[in-house]
Amino acid sequence: MDTLLLTNIHKSFDKRILLQNVEFECKVGQIIGVLGRNGCGKSTLLKMIFGTEKADTIGIKINSKVYTPKEIIPSRRIGYLPQVTFLPKDIMVRDIISVFFPNGELQDLIFYAPKVSSFETTKVGNLSLGQLRYLELLLMGNLPHTFLLLDEPFSMIEPLYKEVIKEFLIELKNSKGIILTDHYYNDVLEITTKNYVITDAQIVPILDKADLVFYDYLRSYE
Ligand SMILES: Nc1ncnc2c1ncn2[C@@H]1O[C@H](COP(=O)(O)OP(=O)(O)OP(=O)(O)O)[C@@H](O)[C@H]1O
């Protein structure tokens, strides 16, 4: 089973230590949730792993192979879904699918995915937020990358598409390892296999919502 091992991650801005000695791993078959209060460094962590934000130090290993952050994008081993959409607005969904996947069989995987037929002739700019996020995830999830970093896949998404996205991610973990971060902790905890919270610049494993209260992310829960 492919394993992404992240070690010795440090990041500071000016005098503020954002992340210190962060270490965790993600295997194919796992969905790892990273929770934490606004500004604790979740997005920065994902960007440092992807190589688009400079870390003070970071160790990245996939199985026995060591990668520098600069090697991550060209290696196509790790994909990254940013918080803000990356698709051009003026293009029709079916055209963007063929841009991503010139191969007909791969195209079909997307065209026949649940719900896609209901918006394939819509322009990207006219999609609902849920349709757009789902499309982005379908495109990324069908690329060959073994690991995916997802920054807020549930934020602002209508309930119907949240469910479709969760089903897709649960299926996807059969072939990939996924690290995701979001404030919609109920949705995160529903699909993750392991969870962490970032607190005081450290990453700490958590088991349940009681731990989230303990680490001051939640005040209370039902
Ligand atoms: N280039 C930078 N220079 C200085 N500070 C920065 C820089 N980039 C990010 N920060 C700060 O680092 C902190 C972490 O930001 P980040 O976006 O990673 O947090 P987050 O946990 O993803 O927050 P949210 O939950 O609000 O998305 C924030 O306080 C942010 O202002």
Automatic annotation (TrEMBL):
The keyword Nucleotide-binding applies. The keyword Transcription regulation does not apply. GO terms for molecular function: ATP binding; ATP hydrolysis activity. It comes from the Bacteria. SMART domains: AAA. Residues 4-222 form the ABC transporter domain. Keywords: ATP-binding, Nucleotide-binding. This is ABC transporter ATP-binding protein. It comes from Imtechella halotolerans K1. The lineage of its organism: Bacteria, Pseudomonadati, Bacteroidota, Flavobacteriia, Flavobacteriales.
